[in-house]
Amino acid sequence: MESNPRKLLDEFIPEAVGKQFVIPVYQRKYTWTVKKQLVQLIKDLEQLIEDETKQKQHFLGTIVYLENIVEYKVERSIVDGQQRLVTMFLMAHAMKSISENEYRAREIDETYLQNYAEKADSRYRQRLYPSVADGEDYTIISEGRFDELNKDSSSNIVQNFLYLQAELKSLVERYTFDRVLYALKRFSIVYIKLDDRDNAQQIFESINSTGERLTASDLIRNFIMMNKSNEEQTQLYKQYWRKLEAVFDNSKGMEDFFRYYLAAMTEEYSAKHVLYQAFKEYWHKERESASDVELLQKLVRYSEYFVNLYYKKPDGKYLEVLSDFQSMESMMPAPFVLELSEWYYFDKVISEEQYFEIINVVNGYQLRRYFNGDDTSRVSKAFPSYLKHVRKYVAVHGFENIVDIVIYVLVTRNQSNNMSLPTDKALKSNLSNVNAYAMRLVRWLLEKIENRNNPATLDMSNLSIEHIMPQTSTAYWEEKAGVSGEEYIELVNTIGNLTLVTKPDNSAAGNKDFETKKKIFEDTLHIRLNKTLYGMSEWTSEAIKNRSERLIDELISMYPYLRSNGNYDHDGSRNIFLEAHGIKASGYLNEDGTVIIYSGSEIYSKIKDIASDTLGEVRQEMLDKGIIEKTIGGLQFTQDYVAPSVSNAAGLILGGSRNGWDCWKDEDGIIINDSLRKRNSK
Hints:
Layout (H helix, E strand, L loop, with lengths): L1 E6 H5 L7 E3 L11 H16 L8 E13 L2 E8 L1 H16 L4 H12 L14 E2 L5 H8 L13 H20 L1 H8 L2 E8 L5 H8 L8 H10 L4 H18 L3 H16 L8 H12 L5 H20 L7 H9 L6 H13 L5 H20 L11 H15 L4 H9 L13 H10 L8 H10 L11 E5 L7 H7 L3 H8 L5 E5 H7 L4 H7 L7 H7 L6 H18 L16 E6 L2 E7 L5 E3 L4 E2 L8 H13 L3 E3 L4 E3 L3 E3 L2 H9 L5 H4 L1 E2 L9 H6 L1
Parallel strand pairs: 2-4, 2-5, 3-6
Antiparallel strand pairs: 1-6, 3-4, 7-8, 9-10, 9-16, 10-11, 11-15, 12-14, 13-14
Helix pairs in contact: 2-6, 2-7, 3-4, 3-6, 6-7, 9-12, 10-13, 11-12, 11-15, 13-15, 14-16, 15-17, 16-18, 17-18, 19-26
């Protein structure tokens, strides 16, 4: 490693005659802006101009580069310092454009901008080779085709050049060309030249750990592209990485996608702060059997699946299934459905019918839990685990029964824990009494019910949700409903009291009586939800409750409780569960007495004093390893966990010493001491 101070325009760039500064593909686009950086830079320049001693310098920062020999040409690949280097080149181009005569322009060209020993059409003619994303705009500037610049462009290259050109021209008019150029030559840097012994990637990461934070996707791009020739970087960028950028319009969106992709590959979510490190570990492992090109091809494939699932407007035979999936706006199942897409589109191990049937299973699982009011955070990290189990079972049983396997993993294995599929009874109980008006998907549900089995699908985008019995109570409505106060408030927002009408009708209806409202709703009698209302003579609490029940029955009919036909894991008779202190856990009792505690099982947060030290340490270790996690209600398992005995499993879950044979129950609700233990002893 070599390090020295240098004046940027007076020494560092001129010393590189015959060489080329290259902005590698892994670097971000040029990001300096007029407001944030250039206004201050011009002020700093003006101070240097007015310096009477003519000795002051202005330190811009550090430039780190790695020198490579490519086709017998010397390239200085910029590891850090792109922004200040590109800006100084833009300043040189601006000074050339406002030069007093062609001789001064030629002098600036030869000293700073071009390698005149190279042919005019050589890529090495220009002293700076910008990033691929900025290349077109920079070429226009370097060739002096200023009339082709789009003054309204969002390109920082264009806007900064135009600003610098105007400001430098103003300074030249005030101070003379030579005086401004002499001041520019007093901008200084410290350069660091890396050699083969230096780890450029590590240095890049270290440098960028401070200042403007690079996203994980920025770092991943660097990791994949670095240590390759500029030509290879450019090829990989154009063929693959650019496709990713086209899908995700910002690095944050791409970062989220990488989390879902990595979860699909590794079967566990990586926290955002360790995503980059986790991705590197995954990539290093995959490089043992696949090339970077193959891995990038796979990334692009999965990004296309992501677009189809989440962004692209559904159409075709399975329009309804995909529309339902998108309506939920849930990223929770992303790792699961991404891998499912790979099985269908690329591996071709499942059929089109299986693919969309599984997505419909996922829809039903999510929707029933949503309308049951279940905490989504509890299942947010479960889908990578679900994928792990599905992979395990299809490895043994094949893909023929893949739909049933998915139902088994999502429903059967979760029957007795906090990620269970709500029963019809539970769903009716919750949705009959909950504030449905506050639920984001209630409008979607009303539209879904309206269009179900309707040969002419209605466009209801211009409709709004109307409370049939108004939100603001009146003596008339309290009398009709037979409720008041808190009871009225609870009843008015239930699903049975909601319908869809035009926005003008919504405003006109207000607090009016039921007969008047029916006349106002005549505009929407083509909506079946309102036809039923029009045939009623009064609107009472009983009518609201009955309508709630009918609408919930429609939901249940559309998304029925799912049941698996098989047991792909173990003998079902050895499935066990535990309920106490408001928590639920489920598992499997192995023949050797060990217990598999299933992912999603809850843990009672309190610990008995007598067990506090040891058990507290065990739980903390499990938290550190990600085996369990904190939730709103306490703790829960994020993955299956094998406990050495039924008592150990019970004690771990309930927070103290327990006789597990008396705590756990079998699938029939009988304590295992009276069932499984006696069965084993025979």
